[in-house]
Amino acid sequence: MTLELSSSERKDVISHDGRKIGVLVGVNIDTKTWTVHAIVVEVNKDIIEELHVKKSMLKLPRINLKTDLVGVVGDIVHLNVDLKNLKDYV
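RE: above sequence
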């Protein structure tokens, strides 16, 4: 079973080529092994079309990105994949 936890501290999520993808809003945790499988990112308006993410009328769409795509977590979340290649993982 997968559980989504909301992040209390919102962090910017940046692609390897320096583009702001959105904001970290939570994580998906496997409750059997208690490991984080994915981060939940609220996608910026200007990135929605580039990633071919389905739009929502009332709120920004959210995507799940596997943890293997995360390079560094600090004040920001820096991905180890650029925006062009991120499309393959969404």
